[in-house]
Amino acid sequence: MVETLLLLLLVPGLSLAQSSQNNWDNLKQLAPGEQIRIVLNDAKSYSGQFQSVSDDGIVLRLGKDSQTFERQNVLRVSTRGRGHRGRNALIGLAVGAGAGVIVAVASPELGTGKCAQGSCVDAGVVSMVGFLGGALGAGLGAAMPTRGWHDVYRAATKPRK
């Protein structure tokens, strides 16, 4: 009973979240000079710098020229997302260092040294392999592309007949 009530309360919120991209007014949040991509109803796309928007259309700077796209012809408008190189580098550093330490400790040739009581972990080797793993992970994390396009506006689709 309680679950059903909660579900009924959430459904209108989900539909609002989905339809929010259908609002042409979303384009008013764009800043002049911001990199955008426009996809038209005929599937042609144009990338350039946003200049302005009105109720009738959107103006895009393409190189040295400006072009106006009528609202009725615009299927989708997207902006470039922010890059996350720093975050990805930190995640890669942590994963790489952890993996390096695990490999060094688990490998009899790398992580163990001779001790009076038998074998023990050689902290110098483990820290070196952990450092190398962290450096490799940080480099790979920073190189990962995460700066995709994010829709700001998407025209409402018309049902097919």
Helix content: 25-40%
User: What global shape is seen?
Assistant: rod-shaped
Count of DSSP H/I helices: 3
The share of residues in extended strands comes to 25-35%
- Oligomeric state: single chain
Structural class: alpha+beta
Uncertain runs are 2-19
Question: What radius of gyration results from the CA coordinates?
Answer: 26 Å
In round numbers, the mean pLDDT is 79
Describe the structure concisely.
The chain is built from 3 helices and 8 strands.
Characteristics:
single chain; 161 residues; alpha+beta; SH3 type barrels; 6-stranded antiparallel sheet; two-stranded antiparallel sheet; 30% strand
Explain how this protein is built.
By secondary structure, the chain is of the alpha+beta class. It folds into 2 domains: 20-80, Roll (SH3 type barrels); 85-143, no CATH class. It is 38% helix and 30% strand. The strands form 2 sheets. It has a 6-stranded antiparallel β-sheet with strand order 4-3-2-1-5-8, with no helix packed on it. Strands 6-7 form a two-stranded antiparallel ribbon. Helix 2 (85-106) runs antiparallel to helix 3.
Write the topology of this structure:
Elements: H1 2-19, E1 35-40, E2 45-53, E3 57-62, E4 65-70, E5 74-80, H2 85-106, E6 112-115, E7 118-121, H3 123-143, E8 149-154
Antiparallel strand pairs: 1-2, 1-5, 2-3, 3-4, 5-8, 6-7
Helix pairs in contact: 2-3
